[in-house]
Amino acid sequence: MNPKPLQFMEQRLDVLRSHHLYRQLRTASAGSEAWLTIEGCPILNLSSNNYLGLASHPDLKAAIAAAAIEGGGMGSSRLIAGSSEQHHLLEGRFAHFKRAESALLFTSGYTANVGVLTSLAGPDDLIFSDELNHASIIDGCRLSRACCQVYPHADVAALQALFASSVQSGHTGKRIVVTDTVFSMDGDRAPLQAIADLCRRYDAILVVDEAHATGCIGPGGRGLVAEANIQYAATISMSTLSKALGSFGAFITGPALVKEYLINVARNFIFTTALPPAVIAASLAAVNVLEQQPALVEQLQENATFFRAGLQAMGFNTLTSSTHIIPILIGDSALTLEMSGELLRNGIFAVAIRPPTVPANTARIRTSIMATHSRSDLEYALSVFERVGKRLHLL
Ligand SMILES: Cc1ncc(COP(=O)(O)O)c(C=O)c1O
Q: Which residue range(s) make up the domain with 152?
């Protein structure tokens, strides 16, 4: 029997179970690789964000091993004694990669989004946020205490209407638009050029989350801002190191003034310990690999195009995906869980994504493709999807 003050937790968990929304940790080894092992069985991994396979790249492993001499943690925040030459070097290398004036490291993509939004916006400001933005953006908006107005997914006309009504109502504070560039559960692209045009017209700040775009799309993997050739100077961009770059942490890139401002204002930059030497070394190695091997990015998108076309030809609904994130819409949470379990029993790891991660009645299998999947891996996956889809009467 759990202590009385904690019993509300049991009740909440029971509700989640009854709605097929209960979550459990599962043990996997080589969990970021194209093939992982669960309970001793090799399983094809269609659920990793290690899109380029860099997490186990020999250069990253060697860099981590070489950094071992510096030991474990940094022991203090960047503003105390935790800012090593390597931190500055990495920021400079990444800014160069993104063709940005500056880059500032954060300890994760989650903290970077929260840090930026809470530093830019306050109670007098307006944030316009896409309805499918990542949870870290939603939390950043809430914590900022700004007035957050959510616009329908990728709907430029609705965003324009929000701008117009803010002018009509005489809003005098800042206006900020925040959007994922590649949406993490739908795998589609934000209409970035049109959004940037609106921001320019209304003097708004544009904050973009390139977590699933950096290293994956655009010239050399420089993201959607580069692909769409966005030239709007008040653009602030977040990139994670934890996904395509196979490491950990995140960057904010943008004008040098933004970096200077965040160093002085962002509470979750100021009041947290600096990223450790091994992470910085791995990240530096990842940026080098990415610059030297842009073909990895092309391979990733070639694999994604092949896999998406195969699913669509069978009749699966892949929503508006145009990237390496390919959802298979099921709708019902219980059925989605059943499909994920059936895929696993047939050697495919593809997780069920359910509300609240996605809107009600849009539960789906989310697949993420890697550059390190071979053509025969993807053909195998397609054959299993077809078999399971037919068995569950989804096809
Ligand atoms: C769109 C998006 N933004 C931010 C994050 C957070 O990044 P991190 O895992 O580095 O905290 C994620 C990852 O889950 C994401 O999908």
A: 75-292
Q: Is 184 a catalytic residue?
A: yes
Mutate to test the pocket of ligand 1, among 47, 110, 275 (most ligand atoms within 8 A of CB): 110
Residues 136 and 151 grouped into a single domain: yes
Host H or E run for residue 387: helix 375-391
Per-residue pLDDT of 369-384, as tens digits, reads: 999 999 999 999 999 9
- Show Cβ contacts of residue 135 under 8 Å, excluding neighbours closer than 6 positions: 110, 357
Q: What is the pLDDT of residues 47-104, one digit of tens each?
A: 999 999 999 999 999 999 999 999 999 999 999 999 999 999 999 999 999 999 999 9
Nearest C-alpha to atom 4 of ligand 1 is from which residue?
109
Per-residue tokens: 137: 């953006």
Q: Report whether residue 180 contacts ligand 1, using a CB cutoff of 6 Å.
A: yes
Buried b (16+ CB within 10 A) or exposed e, 62-71: ebbeebeeee
For residue 149, what pLDDT is reported? 98
DSSP 32-58: TSSEEEETTEEEEE---S-TTSGGG-H
Q: Is residue 1 part of a domain?
A: no
Total count of domains within the chain? 2
Residue 32 catalytic?
A: no
Q: Among residues 237, 267, 292, which one ends one of the domains?
A: 292
CB 392 within 8 A of CB 323: no
265 and 352, same domain (yes or no)? no
